Amino acid sequence: MTDTTIHTEKLTKHYGDVPALVDLDLDIAAGEIFGFLGPNGAGKTTTIRTLMDEIRPTAGTASILGMDTHERSVEIRRHIGYVPGDLSMYPNLTGRDTLTYFANLRGGVDWSHVEELRDRLGADLDKKVGDLSSGNRQKVGLIQAFMNKPEVLIMDEPSTGLDPLVQREFQKMMREVAAEGTTIFLSSHTLSEVQRVAHRVGIIRHGRLMTTEAVADLRSKAIRTVSIHFTEPVNASAFDGIPGVREATSLNEHVTLSFDGQMETLLKVVTERFHVLDITTQEADLEEIFLTYYQDEEVNA
Amino acid sequence: MLATVFTKSTLDRWRGVIIAVVSLGLMLLMAMAVYRDFDLAIYDQLPAALREAMGIPEGADAAGLGIGVLFAFYGAMTMGGLAVSIGASSIAGEEKDGTIGILLGNPKSRSHVYVAKAVAMVSLIAVGAVLLWGATYAAASLLNVDLGEMNVGAYSFHLGINALFYGFLAMAVGSWTGRRGLASGVAAGVMVLSFFAVGILPLVENLADVAKAFPWYYFDSSQPVVNGVDWGHIGILGGGSAALGALGFVGINRRDLRGKSVGVTLVDRLRNDPRTRKLANRLAGAARVSRIWIKTASEHQGLLIVSSLAMFGVMGVMLAPIYAAMDETLLEFTKDLPQELFAFAGAQSGNMSTPEGFYEVESFGLMAPIAIMVVTIAIGARALAGEERQRTMGLLLANPVSRTRVLAEKTATMLAYGAVVGFATFAGVSIGSVIGGLGMSIANIGATSLLATLVGLVFGAVALALGAFTGSQKVAAFGAVAAALGFHLLTSIARLSEGLTGLGRLSPFHYYLTSDPLANGMPWGHGLVLTVILVALIVASVVAFNRRDLRQSG
Prior knowledge:
Chain A contains ten helices and 14 strands. Chain A has 301 residues and is an alpha/beta fold. Chain A has two domains: 4-217, Rossmann fold (3-Layer(aba) Sandwich), CATH 3.40.50.300; 223-282, Alpha-Beta Plaits, CATH 3.30.70. The relative contact order of chain A is 0.13. The model of chain A has no long low-confidence stretch (mean pLDDT 89). Chain B is built from 26 helices and no strands. Chain B has three domains: 1-256, no CATH class; 264-299, no CATH class; 302-554, no CATH class. Chain B is mainly α. The two termini of chain B are 27 Å apart. The chains are: A alpha/beta (301), B mainly alpha (554). The A-B interface holds A 45, 49, 52-56, 73-75, 77-78, 80, 82, 84, 86-93, 96-98, 100-102, 104-107, 128, 130-131, 141, 144 and B 260-262, 268, 285-286, 288-292, 295, 299, 390-402, 549-550, 552.
């Protein structure tokens, strides 16, 4: 994961006077799954549409596989699979016709691979796209993105409408292609999905990138909930002053802590003072981190 | 709820009505200005049947002629088209957009929604007719033209009721089928066919009464501008509208609503039947999605077939026996008339005593450009703006194809399809001429068909360019139609007024029939001008489309 596949530099897009994206700097490495998170209207789709040369940046540049996204957009698209947000396809074509159309335009599509993808996702390719439910339509969209074994996958909310089983299969597909070297740019609201597959996440808000971090780092920084069961009732005030303890509540022998410090220090202090029967820690998931991040931002704003 | 659906349906459409009325008002102003300086005595010599065919009231003066030509064709067609568009969208449009479910998720019945939409359509057309009435008085007072005894109100009333008939037809078809395209296609088809039939049938011996079978007959054959409201005719049109409205009411209450789903076509049935699957797949399966231009072609097959058959069969071959059956004295009479009289039929030569003159008035003047433009404007408007409205352009351009290539392939389909309808016209008129022994020059028929094709393509390219600049399918389609109507009127009145000759050259129609190609052969200079305009519009489209952001939704 060393070569940069997607690179943006001060990428900016204004709609009239409204800044939709401001000075976005991103570097995404080959084989990396990059989760792009942000609330509605944060600028995720604007970023993706700029990368796809659907819209042109007001300032800054973007490149994919070392090629400028505007100057060499056609060449780039030979190597890309794309799932737009709020996917729309030709309602009068069947799924198979749709895939045939794009396969013809793209070239080099192995049809047995298409059939393999169809079987994995359980897609119906014989019905007209207009007659499919949104989830089944999404499956056709996913197949068209994966079918030419692209080097880069750019997907805007790709799990929309998929049932949990298909979502799981789709996540498996993402991990497999990433292991083979495909770079994935994944914009999503399904945080559990990003948590399961992404190596790194970027959080965007009001068109500005707030942070990019490895999922593991983000988790280690996150506040964990620690529940301790003692042999006798313990007062919450006993935990005042212990580094990393943000909040403590007690109910008889049970104490619950909000904790973001070193676990080793906490254990040392607690076992020195009391007899511990049981201890459980619950790792914060991305959703909590995300919400915490935004709540903090809202407070600071 | 009723008030809300009514209000929304009205607000969605009021702009269209205002634009139509303002455009018609301006056109009326031009027409009256030209006729004011024109020697009008000749009109009184026209036989009644011919005058009716031309939409000119008896004893007409400048205002009368202006109103006559404007109301009889441009006004009636524009308001009729507007009504068809509103009627087709009212129920079937909500289904196509997938909004009918959420609309009916509110605690009101289908009947309520239907009635609210019908009332909105009637109100909009009524307002349009009243405004047109007002615009006529405004134009007359601006030009100091005396409207005298003319009953403009009665004519506007007839025009509104006539438009509503086709609006209710579209609404009824939409209510029974849920298909907007079918609804507007059927209603517009009946309207144009009816207009044509009522124009030509009175000229044929023994067939004059057949015109009464067509609804357009009850619009202005009673000359409401001179004779006032003909309540019998209004009763027939109004009764017909009410019957269609009731039919639609029954339809929407009886059937299953369509989701955002698409219809099952004959080809779909063939593809689903194991016995015919192989053949159907070859015709409509993988082959039709092999290239962008082929896919574009497959989307417009129906329109191509209808337009080509209409031009080949009805406006080409069948006109020959009609010509042979026509009242000779009537045709002879046209020989001595000033040719400017035929300006508004789009024809250069109004001398219908020759087959060339007859075909020019009846077939090439209006119908051939309309038939070609129906196809080219439909393709031009959908080519870019349609994909953007459907939100498929992003996915299409995610493939390694440039914007220029997408535009070039779609334009190629437009050019090919325009050429096919042009060729069907050429073949139909040529075969008609041979069968009927009319002795027209095949080369000249070819030249005229080629010019018709070029004019049709120019306005298709206008739609393409507007789509390329704006990404809005509505702007592309309505803009191209408005440009075609405006330029056609400009060409027509420029021929009536020497002062406007220079201005007339700005219109593409000037380079179509002005040189009388059916009699005189190919005017290569004119052909070149049209070709240059066409190429310039396509180049402008390429530049514009490559420069701008794609729209996220229509």
